[in-house]
Amino acid sequence: MTKLFTSSFLLVIAACVSNTNADGAEGGVPTTISAHPYVVSLQSTDGSKVCGGVLIDSKTVATAAQCLSFYDVSKLVVGVSNGAKVVKIASSTFNSGFDSVTMENDVALVKLAEAVSVGSIAVASKQPKNGISGVVTTWDASNNLVDIAETVIDASECGSGDYSYSEDEILPTMLCGLATNSNACGALPGSPLIANSQLVGLVSWGNGCGNKGNPAVFTNIASLASWVKSTAKAL
């Protein structure tokens, strides 16, 4: 199966105006930035969101590699506190093993030009247990922040044939999440999946709309934790 969902979605988002998100998340529950102060957006200078992201320390944002690979980073900024503060990007990099066809190693880091003191989230170093509950925080079509409850599914189960993916599509640097609301759909790439107060995943790709009864596919942060931590120090 060709992974067209995320790249097509990114191109649509890039054309959105600043106060809307035409293909934003569906089926989410309204939330606030005070509940998730570490959630940020990668956006154009006019405020149009192209990706989600998450602060892992006061100056470092984790997001999906596709967000840097498919865009001119020099034209992006980071929206903190749901856009109340906009911070320039000092430097950025994505995992050298990122493959835009398989979506393997879909992780990137952005270093902010200035530190922010809103809070950060711990990076998971151990694989999350299959079946644990998690939450994706992203934006809906009206640019409102929403939570989407997920059940975390490991790569072996996700690619077992029980869903719409084969074992050669769901790779070790991926995990899946099945939304509690089967109508949930459309989280921005790079939006964080949090479980047990840790960053366990980043929205990466999906079959069709990404959920609609099938799991969405996330970057498996624990499998890339060494790269994330060492690169955050060096960037």
UniProtKB/TrEMBL annotation:
Keyword flag Hydrolase: yes
Keyword Protease: yes
Domain Peptidase S1 as annotated: residue spans: 25-233
One BP term from GO: proteolysis
Any single Pfam family the record assigns to this protein: Trypsin
Signal peptide: 1-22
Keywords: Disulfide bond, Hydrolase, Protease, Serine protease, Signal
Top-level taxonomic group: Eukaryota
InterPro entries documented for this protein: Peptidase_S1, Peptidase_S1_PA, Peptidase_S1_PA_chymotrypsin, Peptidase_S1A, Trypsin_dom
PROSITE patterns on file: PROKAR_LIPOPROTEIN, TRYPSIN_DOM
Gene3D superfamilies linked: Trypsin-like serine proteases
Alphabetized GO MF terms: serine-type endopeptidase activity
Membership in a protein family: Belongs to the peptidase S1 family.
Protein name: Trypsin
Gene source species: Bactrocera latifrons
